[in-house]
Amino acid sequence: MIIQTASHMGLCFGVQDAVDMAIASAKEGKLHILGPLAHNPVIQDRLHQAGIQFIDRPDQADEGTILITAHGMPESVRKQARETGLALKDATCPLVHFAHRHLAQLVDQGYFPVIIGRHNHIEVQGLTRDLASCSVVLEISDIDSIPRVPRIGIVAQTTQPMDRVQHLVDAIRARYPESEVVFKDTVCQPTKRRQLAAVKLASTSDVVVVIGGSKSNNTRQLTASIARIQPRVHQIERADELQAQWFGPHDTVGITAGTSTPSETIQAVMQKLQGWEHPGNLIRTSSVHQAHVSR
To answer: Is 35 left (phi over 0), alpha (psi -120 to 50) or beta?
Structure first.
């Protein structure tokens, strides 16, 4: 068995910075986090163990500090948080701020806002909640929700795969040839790098393991991209979900992970795979992942 890892995988700097801010803030006093900080059970467990409480609305916090997650929040929710009188800390990823700024500029310039992403994702809700009107598009069929207007402005959820985004942008332009369509690329570089690395990994592996939370959008997208190339792909949250029957003695096994997957989870998966060594099998790690946090 040969084990190889994607050149880019694991925690992105936005999630890592948010986790670090949360842990440090919890040491100073009671901390409330608005929504899930990361769609990963290992990180969520770590935060719970630090005594951190999770809330859905600012008015559920009774004392201490409120933390906005890396996914960001609309200005209306920020205002509600300030009105509680509690301390407010903002861990919004700067690349999510970038998407908010581009969307606001398009709206100010008179473009009808279109967001490519999942309508129920916390980041997309943060982008859309304060808009008078907008369309959220994830599939070709969603394009029909866009009204026929002179100007259409498009941004994307930062963790959407770029090939999906470009496909939808092209389809919108084809559907509304009479409209001026402007697209601002707000897919983040960590997502792009991980997608490209995953595709390369899939093309050189007999089986691929994707590590990440079951509710993580970017992890699901990695799995979907890999499955188009290598159908032997398995998505897991923890090492104890690995099953020996997935792997043959002469397989090249590829490992990648979503942007909210901590390094210790990746290492646990690697160690379990290496523990299945049998005499005569070759276990070698190639394409060594040099950093689980990349900017």
So the answer is: left
